[in-house]
Amino acid sequence: MTTPSPSFFRRLYTLSPQKIADKVRSVIGGDRPNPTAQLVTGEFLQSEEYQQMMAAHLPYDRSYDLHEAQNFTANFRYRHFDCRDRLGIFRWRGIERNLDFLLPILTDETKRIIDFGGAASSVGFHSIIVDQLPTDTFGNPVRFHSLKEVEGEVDVIFSSHTLEHIPDLDGILSDIASKLKTGGRLILHIPSFSCERWRPGIHTNVKYNDHVWAFGLEPDSPIPGLQGYCNIVTPVSKHLTVERAEYCGDDSIFLVAEKEG
């Protein structure tokens, strides 16, 4: 049997968990529907089962820090790999911590909601997916591939871990603002620069495009020479009024902005 070269092990070591998962998916079926994925319901999100899954492998007091993604903790691995098909997008710590804010919005059937970039892991309920992928994780066709294809204005645009892939950030934020009604909200959940493997030049992804932005909330990059650093509040504020922007768990940022009249 041929022994792998040292360079092979070096390449394997530098692969991010997401790259490994993407490679496995491409081998076993590409964009075919995932037979084990489940729709997430409001009842599940308010259940003890959900709380237990989110707390797996945590200390007895269920404590955690902001950097579970960077530290690649046992809890992070469990939520994002072992339970991804059951938890969907609600596996993210920032989404979990904001459920009291999110659920009344997502379950309000009087609101038109766009899930921008949600094909691989949709926020669900009655939201409209806008994504470049042809199908969602359940194998349903994605009808809209740009915001401009959706007729009329909407009440909410939700987007999780998507904007970091888009070079024309100002252009997409302009499209978002144009699509929102007066009083409508943008809800962003985006990766923070604090997770090293998500930084531009390190994170590559053939299917979803490489990361081109390293988002933060400081005016200037906290790390000298960090490629693609962007204080996300600045470009969003050109188009919308930012209500809140904060670092949240899993090395991410949670931001809410409103379109004023």
Describe the structure.
- The protein has a 6-stranded mixed beta sheet with strand order 2-1-3-4-8-7. It has a two-stranded parallel sheet with strand order 5-6.
- It has helices at residues 6-14, 17-28, 42-45, 48-55, 68-71, 74-82, 84-87, 93-97, 99-106, 169-179, 233-237; strands at 113-116, 128-130, 154-160, 180-191, 214-216, 229-231, 241-248, 252-258.
- It has 261 residues and is of the alpha/beta class.
- Helices cover 30% and strands 18% of the residues.
- The chain is globular.
- It has 11 helices and 8 strands.
- The model is unreliable at 4-30 (pLDDT under 50).
- Strand 7 (241-248) and strand 8 form a beta hairpin.
- It has one domain (14-258): Rossmann fold, CATH 3.40.50.150.
Q: Secondary-structure blueprint of this entry?
A:
Blueprint: H1 6-14, H2 17-28, H3 42-45, H4 48-55, H5 68-71, H6 74-82, H7 84-87, H8 93-97, H9 99-106, E1 113-116, E2 128-130, E3 154-160, H10 169-179, E4 180-191, E5 214-216, E6 229-231, H11 233-237, E7 241-248, E8 252-258
Parallel strand pairs: 1-2, 1-3, 3-4, 5-6
Antiparallel strand pairs: 4-8, 7-8
Describe this structure in a few short sentences:
This protein has 261 residues and is an alpha/beta fold.
